[in-house]
Design goal:
The chain is an alpha+beta fold and 425 residues long. The chain has helices at residues 2-17, 28-81, 126-139, 161-164, 169-173, 185-189, 194-197, 224-232, 236-245, 257-262, 290-293, 299-309, 319-325, 398-411, 416-424; strands at residues 86-93, 96-104, 120-121, 254-255, 270-273, 276-279, 295-297, 330-331, 347-350, 355-359, 362-371, 374-381, 386-392. The strands form 3 sheets. An 8-stranded antiparallel β-sheet has the order 2-1-13-12-11-10-9-8, with helices on both faces. It has a 3-stranded antiparallel β-sheet with strand order 3-7-4. Strands 5-6 form a two-stranded antiparallel sheet. Helix 1 (2-17) packs antiparallel against helix 2 (28-81), helix 2 packs antiparallel against helix 14 (398-411) and helix 3 (126-139) runs parallel beside helix 8 (224-232). The protein is globular, with a radius of gyration of 26 Å.
């Protein structure tokens, strides 16, 4: 942009020089002098513009680095206050990791520290992977967002069969089936497979027609695995590995309970008791809904995932795919009342596998995850291209404070120093 303005300025100056004057054109010697002056001024403009651009870039960089330093102080302070066993975070500015660090241990009472390659359960952050995978395949014309779900999952039926015939693939990933939120999640928690849960949908109907209202789902969301399998002939797990984990060099990422348990450097889940945090066994429950909650990853992996989602691996996630993922499909007004985000956001919606929060002149693309003993969060600024991911091996709400206050800081809606001061009280 700087050079365009410089060239445009040169063109205008030369044009002005050749404008007729009284008695004809400018004399050749005068014209030569003016052209020389124009060249000198133009060079100065370019240098000044270049310097301005460089300084502007440094200013932005310093701002993110400053936020990162403040965040690290806040991160350690609040985790110590709440006795969190272990956690990790990464902050990414465009395609660069500004900060990545860890806290605590993998298992309370033991010595093994959390590292950049310690694997955590991502819980519902897994939905960002499933939706992204589906979007890539949809853009390759393997299926269409408007396809009826019963085409791939014929055993699915609502109490009113005509309504189940209206359910489209895109409704699965945008939680806009119209059903009561978290329908039949209790059966997932009892370790029932999807095949045993699906028949139960024949006893209920949506509260609205598919596509018209929001209701968060895990069981229905996970039907995207069957869509992908039947549309491509390739298992969902293989698609994730070949299309995301390998090309993005997500070396620790995997799908499923068996893969998590096979990782030597993995975090243990912890739950709160009267005596503090206690490690518990890794439950299979939500792993049975793999697209909704089955991905495992380290904080190093999440750095790569953030870069890809912000557009810096276009060969993996194209600009068109990202735009599709972040196009709002349904409004989520209830999230305007979330205890952390309500002070910052102006509008809330859901795209495909991502929450979308409008914050002033920016939009935050976000998702959180919570499953027995683990919490996860990932968010990025669409305008500023700054993102954060946090992983914890404890079921603590402090992850919301950490994420929300960092986003407020980088968007100018709040200051981390204030959050730090408040936390000290």
């Amino acid at each position: 942009m700087v050079y365009f303005k410089v060239i445009q300025g040169v063109s205008n100056r030369i044009r002005d020089m050749f404008q007729p004057v009284a008695g004809g054109l400018l004399p050749p010697l005068v014209l030569l002098v003016l052209l020389s002056v124009a060249h000198t001024v133009t060079a100065a403009d370019a240098t000044a513009g270049d310097k301005s651009a460089r300084e502007g870039g440094k200013s932005v960089s310093r701002s993110v680095e400053s936020s990162a330093r403040e965040f690290d102080r806040y991160f350690r302070q609040i985790l110590k206050q709440h006795g969190i066993p272990g956690a990790a975070y990464v902050i990414v500015d465009r395609d660069q990791v500004v900060a990545m660090d860890t806290f605590g241990v993998r298992v309370k009472g033991k010595q093994e520290a959390v590292t950049n390659h310690t694997v955590f359960r991502l819980a519902s952050v897994s939905k960002t992977f499933a939706a992204s995978m589906a979007a890539v395949l949809e853009h390759e014309h393997k299926f269409s967002w408007g396809d009826k779900v019963v085409r791939y999952v014929p055993e699915l039926s609502f109490k009113t069969p005509a309504l189940s015939m209206k359910l489209q693939v895109q409704h699965l990933l945008s939680h806009s089936s119209g059903l009561t939120p978290n329908a039949y999640d209790n059966y997932l928690e009892d370790n029932r497979p999807l095949s045993k849960i699906l028949p139960m949908f024949s006893t209920i109907d949506p509260n609205c027609e598919p596509g018209q209202c929001y209701g968060y789902q895990n069981v229905l969301f996970s039907l995207i695995e069957e869509v992908i399998q039947k549309a491509t002939g390739v298992p969902y797990s293989r698609q994730l590995k070949d299309r995301f984990f390998v090309p993005l060099q997500m070396e620790d990422a995997s799908l499923g309970w068996e893969a998590f348990m096979a990782a030597s450097n993995r975090a243990a889940p912890h739950v709160q008791t009267g005596n503090g945090w206690r490690p518990v066994k890794v439950e299979k429950e939500y792993y049975l809904a793999a697209p909704a909650a089955g991905v495992n990853a380290s904080i190093s992996d999440m750095a790569q995932w953030l870069k890809a989602q912000m557009g810096y691996y276009p060969e993996v996630l194209s600009r068109e795919v990202i735009s599709d993922l972040t196009t709002e499909r349904v409004e989520t007004r209830r999230h305007m009342r979330h205890r952390i985000w309500r002070d910052y956001i102006d509008h809330a919606g859901y795209g495909l596998g991502w929450r979308l929060y409008t914050v002033g002149d920016d939009r935050i693309v976000f998702h959180g995850g919570w499953v027995a003993g683990f919490r996860a969060a990932v968010a990025y600024s669409e305008k500023r291209k700054v993102g954060i991911a946090i992983l914890m091996n404890a079921e603590s709400r402090v992850i919301s404070d950490l994420t929300g206050n960092f986003i407020a800081d980088i968007t100018g809606r709040g200051k981390l120093v204030h959050a730090i001061t408040a936390a000290k009280k």
